[in-house]
Amino acid sequence: MQPKESEIVKCITDAEKKTKKEICIGKIFGSAIFEQILDTTGKHKYALYEEVENKEWRLDTTRLEYENFIPLAKTPLTHPPPPEEYEDDERLYTSVKAFIEKHLDMPNPLGYDVLTAFTLSTWISELFDFTCYVGFYGREAVGKSRGLEVLKELCFRAWFTTNLTTATLFRLTEKFAPTLLLDESEFLTAEDKKELIGLLNSGQRRGVMIPRMKGENFNEIDFFNVYCPKAIAGTEQLKRTTTSRMIVFTMTKNIRPIPRIIDKAEASKLRGQLLMWRFRKISEMKNAGTELKATAEFPELEPLGGRMFELIYPLYYSAPPTARPNILEFSKEIERSKLQAEKTELSSIVFEAIINLKDTKVSHGLLLLKDIAQYVNAVQPPQNWIPEKTIARKCRQMGFETTRTTRGVAILIIQQLIERLRKDTRYSTDLLNYVEPEPNEQTEPKKDKVSNWLDR
Asked: Phi/psi of residue 230, each to 5°?
């Protein structure tokens, strides 16, 4: 049974007061890299990878402490065993991928490469300015939690939590820099979900700090660094501002047999090899005298959108060259799906209306919102009609200015803006030939009711 967050905080505080040393899971420290491990006797130690001379590095797995640091005795994290040798990067990647395939049935086979590369990227997340999030969604009993359970066995400092409380979450996330695995987010209270969304939205990009009030009267403010890889599972998706930071897998029931019990011995061996991989990657950069930052350029990623590039880059960097084509293809599939979804959204339909109405309904450079609404609602049943104020908001988001006239609210038609929007793939739908709807006394719905999928 995992200790509660409050118990961990108390354990850290008591240990630091008693020993006068700092509790530390591990870090890159000068010419050394050390990480808390769990040996075969169940004792927490440090694995130390230290430069000795002439860019030669030595491994030591016997340290009960290092400098002024000591391991944490009570921990919710999945720690590796002592580092273990592996044949090469490609075979290590293949072994991790095979483990994921064995224990998880993914709807899209390319998802195995994404999860494998995600796993590797968590072991060197310090090298990136932004990190990837993964989401597992779907109805009950489709493998959402199993996805997190598999990642728990493989990822760097994996912290799997189902009973999330946010009182100490920010402090421990900053302290551990874990791979945070959050299950069944829909069971959170409204306040906890708000805190979680803040953690997710602020924690993808390095250097972004999130404020929290503290003190007896909550009149003091503190700032926390919550940058770390994260994965979340649930039957309900979070808001788009959050899911846009994630690679989301919609899970379905297994179509092939999956072991009910995860092979923890195999997982432990892989974590030991991944720790050795981490030590090697960081030591190689130190030997080269370069900044500890991933700077490799991949021209093939340039066509990706900004947010998609941020999600894919850490995965692409961490994967061996032979696996990168699959990751690139997966990212293109997401881009195509996203584009198709955007083309069916209200903004695209409104822009279609503007294009088709600008030559027949524009007077003195103005197009009435009620004419746009009539176009948009022409084939919709009354209960799904879109109100003018919603259409006005979409127009303003595209850059059109609204103004009041004697005939109603209108938008100002600027040809330069229209031409610019025509080049935006989100609005480049196949425009239908406009057929003027039959006159109807009801041009607005009686109630301000919009289908969720249209009012995003």
From this structure: -145, 150
The SS3 call for residue 410 is: strand
Of the pLDDT bands very low, low, confident and very high (cuts 50, 70, 90), residue 342 is low
In eight-state DSSP terms, residue 78 is: B
The mean predicted confidence, pLDDT, of the chain is: 85
| Contacts (Cβ under 8 Å, ≥6 apart) of 23 | 12, 15, 16, 69, 70, 71, 72, 175
DSSP string, 22-66: EE-SEEEETTEEEEEEE-TTS-EEEEEEEEEETTEEEEEEEES-B
Whether the predicted pLDDT of 426 surpasses 80: no
249-263, 340-354, 368-382, 401-415: segment of lowest average pLDDT:
340-354
Could you name the CATH architecture of 89-341? 3-Layer(aba) Sandwich (3.40)
> Six-digit token pair at 247?
């690679």
Q: What percent of the chain has pLDDT over 90?
A: 52
Helix 346-357 / helix 324-343 crossing angle, nearest 10 deg: 60
What is the tens place of the pLDDT at every residue in 191-244?
667 777 778 888 888 888 888 776 666 677 888 888 999 999 887 766 666 777
Burial of 58 (0-12, 13-18, 19+ CB in 10 A): exposed
Pick the CATH number of 345-456 from 1.10.10, 2.60.40, 1.25.40, 3.20.20: 1.10.10
- For CA atoms 333, 335, 336, 337, give the dihedral sign: positive
Instruction: Report domain extents, the chain.
Output: 5-70, 89-341, 345-456
Q: Which residue has the tokens 């989301």?
A: 248
Q: Are 154 and 77 in contact (CB under 8 A)?
A: no
